[in-house]
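Field: sequence (string)
Field: structure_tokens (string)

Example rows 1 and 2, in order.
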Amino acid sequence: MAETGIARKTNTLALVGFIAAFVIPIAGLVIGIVARRQLDARGNSESGRGFARWAMIIGALGALAQLAFFIVWVSLFATALSNAPTLG
């Protein structure tokens, strides 16, 4: 553990994963998992477990939301095509 008064370095991947989770959720999820593994490695004194955890949570929820949106969009598109007037 770090001494009192000395700031620990934040894991870069944890921070990048947290930011990426808002833009590209699946990337944030993967980067968050990699960052968490780095942080859990023996002898690692970096901070950022919270960033990695939230990158995984936000990334997973965002990916599920994108999947649901895609399913709804495909369903509506297929319905629109099936109800389209035919030519001829």
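Row 2 begins here:
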Amino acid sequence: MIAAVLPALVRAATQEPSDEFDPDTVTPGIWGFVLTFVIMVVVVLLVLDMVRRIRRVNYRAEVREQLESERLEQELIESGLERDPLDDLDDLDGTDATGRPAREGRPAASDDDQPPAR
């Protein structure tokens, strides 16, 4: 099948264009321009509407998150737990939550701690 189509394609590609060319049958004309312009306007309006809707959904999500965080804060204040009680462990005796002493301004449980010598 490819062998039958290939010579016809080569022959069509190498032929010189004929002088019987009618530009009115090939160009879209004024109606093609008008139709393309109308489609472009419709697409632009749809994109603007989509952007507006996405922005509205994002704003609603932000407000929902803010209200939820405010509600959780209020619950913590009402229950008397304004701070995490484990945060106080670091300040009591100079050790972190694991009981290791803090050294030179960095936490005791840092990644560069050396293993104990045997």
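free_text_note (row 2): The radius of gyration is 37 Å.
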